[in-house]
């Protein structure tokens, strides 16, 4: 390998590590990702770290923290390790009746400076003096471990933010999606191994970088996860060291003993080597000779093995090739960009392998990168759409949802009237099929459902417009709903009101959700939250943490926490085991960096489908937060030209976020990067007939289909509901979405 003539500064090296970390995350190489975080020390993933704590994986939490700092580094590090060991220490009697506590004290706490250990010495004494009183706690009356662990996560986060060893390592740079691939593609548009034009070539460039940086743990884990390069030298090294477990694990990542005869023979040779390592045999010379023959045999078998032979060679490339390419590309790109910035946030997005260098350069000389043009939908023919039939008033849609299994769509309008659309053929039955993109010759058209009795589901209306807040929730075949008055309970099949509860006067319900198994959390306009037990019909708890009305509630099954947002700007996190407040934030606008400091009301909160991240929606921005600590992960502020945000929701797979605006549009964002994938101009669907009179119609609420990630339903300000889905099999803004397979409508009729 030739030496690079370019001097590469530490900033480029650090930037490249962030780009590689993003690539590892996007490609799902999670083990390599977190090993590189530790080996490089560039980014401390607090969400990953706190996950160990909430699951009681104390050794993993300690190992991850130890990669960045130690108890002797500074006061903050010392306190972090101390709190970690203290929580581990406090849980130990549950598992061992006290003996494990002594081990923690003598082993783990020995790492803490002596003056800190003195604090715990009395605790150990008390523990053993009262050994006869120690019992393994039962579920009832035991300390809520989840609550303690969640509180520890909050405390450690504060210490981490003040810790000089972790300063600047807690926030990941805001990068465009596939930033590293895009960056390399700018200067290497053609696919070839030497320059790194394909994804496999990029993997090889990363492997070279990891090798040169001596990140051995990450390097060999990355080899196993990517399966692009089989490192015979590494295999031989661990075999010589007698680490046969590592050798078998490495080989098993690329093949298994049933793949072919060569693989079977390789695993057999490893078993023989393992036997030599554990069983005394004849003379030392004879043993060494036999081991040498076995090592050589494994190498020869690898060369003949069809599962490995194409992965044994590594391309020759100049030293620090990936660093060099990155610096060359950024130096070349900045004169073409508008900002001329050195920030990672300004790395351009280009389609992968975007064409010849000449065509690429022409595009760069015109605007930004031409292929970064936002996918716009300005005509009904550019996506599948279906306006649901509606024969009632044109009042704004206040609430909208699919049923949990997707067999109907339910809406609540401002006039307190509910509308339910089914894909059924009979008056008294719901279709078992979900309302996806439907073929007319296979499925019936949707219809506005009306039972034979002729009854309608209508709420009591609030006594004043100011008190009018709409909310509903589905439990089985029953609908709980309010429009500012009492909470009504309807039978969804007969539309009959079967019950009502609450007060028609203040305080009234402003938002409510169900909590498994039989609890209903009701937020009131005085800022309190009532926890109703449905089976006993009694109020179980009353939570006080807000000064003004509750605007939204969200529950996480993963962490067993309830999150509440209020008109006072607070977010509160409550344990649903003990009904205690875990944490709260007084000023939601101070969570993330804002363009301005104008207060904005939190109108909506929602957990992602995996129940680990919280989407927070205001009229000026949206943001993602880690649960249960509410750490801000990322934030998106729309262009100043956009009107207020009206609604936002995750797709069923959590990959996209759909955001509605008063400017009569919907934007589809990547949920991780907040990059805009597509913009839907709703005027194309709400103004179908040419007219001199234009009525402004905006998306009041957006709902996502529970099993079809690309389908959304939009409740409009004119009372209509429209179902939207991209053409073809692709997602919003994807190239495949433009392929119509000869059927532009794909079954969704555009009707008015």
TrEMBL record:
Q: Name one Pfam family in it.
A: TPR1-like_2nd
Q: Which PROSITE patterns match?
A: CTLH, LISH, WD_REPEATS_2, WD_REPEATS_REGION
Q: Which UniProt keywords apply?
A: Repeat, WD repeat
Instruction: Specify the CTLH domain's residue ranges.
Output: 228-274
Report the SUPFAM superfamilies cross-referenced here: WD40 repeat-like
Question: Which regions are annotated as WD repeats?
Answer: 543-575
State the name under which the record lists this protein. Answer: CTLH domain-containing protein
Q: Which organism is it from?
A: Brassica campestris
